[in-house]
Amino acid sequence: MRRIITINSNQVNKSVETKKVLTEKLINAEFEVTYNFCKDSELIISIGGDGSFLKTVHDFNFPQIPIIGINTGHLGFFPEISPNHIDRFIELYKNNSFLVQDISLIEANIYTNDCKSNMYAINEVVVKGDKSRTIHLNLNVNNKHIQKFSGDGMIISTPTGSTAYNYAAGGSIVDPGLNLMQLTPLYPINTNAYRCFTSSIIFSSDSIIEIIPEYRFEDSILIVIDGVEYRFSQMSDIKISVSDLKIKLLRMFDYEFWSRVSEKFL
Ligand code: NAP
Ligand code: MN
Question: Helix, strand, or coil here: 85?
Answer without folding.
Answer: helix
